[in-house]
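Late entry, written up from scratch paper. The run itself happened at the end of the previous shift, but nothing got recorded in the book at the time, so transcribing now.
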Amino acid sequence: MKNILFIILTIVLITACNQKSINHKPANKKIKVFLFAGQSNMEGRADGDKLSKADLDALKKAGEKIDFYYNHKPVTPLQLTTPTNYVQKKFGLTHCFGPEIFFGINLTQKYPDDKFVFIKRSQGGTSLYGCWNPYWDIEKAKLMGEENKPKLFSDFIQYTKDVLSQFDTSGYEICGMLWVQGESDSGTKKHGKLPSETYEENLKNLIFEVRKQLNKPELPFIMFQVGSGKVVEGMKNIAKEDNKVSLIPQSNDKNSPDYYPKNPPPIGHYVTESMKRIGIKFFETWEANYKCK
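Output as recorded:
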């Protein structure tokens, strides 16, 4: 009789423990989504073939955690990209990358148990006044010579929605947007002063409309300082006014920690080590100010 009671008590205890384990099983973590947008320095002109073996190994590991959606191409693990024939010839590249690579490497090293989705829409030589303007019109596009280029803002929003439609809305969280754009709007000699002088207003509109259309009213927005004059002034003003906007500064002083070397003119654009640092700086800024729980 005692043996029977012992067996019954043992079964009850095991069942209770198992039930407790089931009830306290942690909920599946949400997929963390990051958005990337801009012109050529977001697209990336850094030479991927100059990365070290350690960097490439880290990228491969990061790719196990990050699904990369780039310019409407089939989804891949996070990886270097193949430039267009024009970019290959001009820059002498076979593989290139933008800020997403070292942002992603550092992100997955810090959060090894999480899964991520990166959505990137970029196109070289495009302006906020024209292609990226959320309130696009043909006259603005013509001023920039972009009337035959895509309406990139609406394309970017629809692309993001299409990607996210694959997931249950409760299964992901949009954690931030990274922006590298401003060079085209700074070119006052080519397009006049209007694109530069209205950059601040247009950037405010872009941030507002991204948040509104993706239903993320406090979406963190991090930008890297590019361009000059009123464009940079506008970036600085918005970063001061909006506590969910951050600006990564850049300096022309070669002795400054905010100096990022480029290829010499007329090629320009950031070299491999600079783009690596830019990606890391994006991560450090996001982690310090906006990290998801």
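Residues 5-26 have pLDDT under 50 and may be disordered.
(Scratch paper discarded after transcription.)
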